[in-house]
């Protein structure tokens, strides 16, 4: 459905449905706030199943890394009686670890989700909670990711929407190619300037 430049497509509806399913699931199983699962579902939901699976794999690796490091953070912070300095220095260090490890695993597309998972879990753990709370938040990210992927499995885009999404992807690709070309030009100019000196 389109009204001028505004449109309500299948992906929009699937995103809303993913959030709704997270809310219902967490209410039924009394898992607490569905925030992390809902965010994971939204991040994982892409235009089609193939893209969702590819992004989902990246997201799962990122969630595992970010969640594991959040548990490390929780244990170290607990060891030092929840000292503010642990938060101040350890959390940024763990962000560095996420980036370096993700890059080393060639999971660059999962860096942001890994950092988001690390920060969401680390900064939302109330003082006095156990390691099970942190583990539960890691599981929340997996629940959301599987809901997002599952919706794309059951609701495939119509050919017209699929064509529109392909066209949007091509426009985005063209923009990225233009940015890459501009970056190449800047680098070439710098190299030429350095050679003249």
Automatic annotation (TrEMBL):
Coiled-coil parts of chain: 163-197
GO terms for cellular component: plasma membrane
Domain of life (superkingdom): Bacteria
Pfam families in alphabetical order: ArAE_1
Residue ranges of the TM segments: 83-102, 108-126, 138-155
Entry's localization field: Cell membrane
Main localization category: membrane
Alphabetical UniProt keywords: Cell membrane, Coiled coil, Membrane, Transmembrane, Transmembrane helix
Membrane topology of the entry: Multi-pass membrane protein
Protein name: FUSC family protein
Organism annotation: Enterococcus quebecensis
């Amino acid at each position: 459905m389109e009204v001028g430049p505004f449109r309500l497509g299948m992906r929009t509806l699937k995103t809303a449905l993913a959030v709704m399913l997270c809310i219902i699931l967490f209410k039924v199983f009394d898992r607490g706030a569905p925030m992390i699962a809902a965010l994971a579902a939204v991040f994982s939901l892409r235009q089609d199943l193939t893209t969702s699976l590819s992004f989902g794999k990246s997201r799962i690796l990122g969630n595992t890394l970010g969640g594991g490091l959040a548990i490390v953070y929780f244990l170290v912070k607990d060891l030092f009686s929840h000292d503010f300095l642990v938060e101040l220095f350890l959390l940024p260090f763990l962000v560095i670890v996420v980036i370096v490890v993700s890059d080393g695993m060639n999971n660059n597309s999962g860096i942001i989700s890994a950092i988001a998972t690390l920060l969401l879990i680390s900064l939302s753990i109330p003082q006095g909670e156990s390691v099970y709370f942190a583990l539960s938040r890691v599981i929340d990210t997996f629940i959301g990711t599987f809901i997002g992927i599952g919706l794309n499995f059951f609701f495939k885009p119509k050919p017209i929407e699929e064509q529109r999404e392909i066209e949007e992807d091509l426009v985005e690709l063209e923009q990225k190619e233009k940015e890459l070309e501009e970056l190449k030009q800047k680098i070439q100019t710098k190299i030429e300037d350095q050679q003249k000196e």
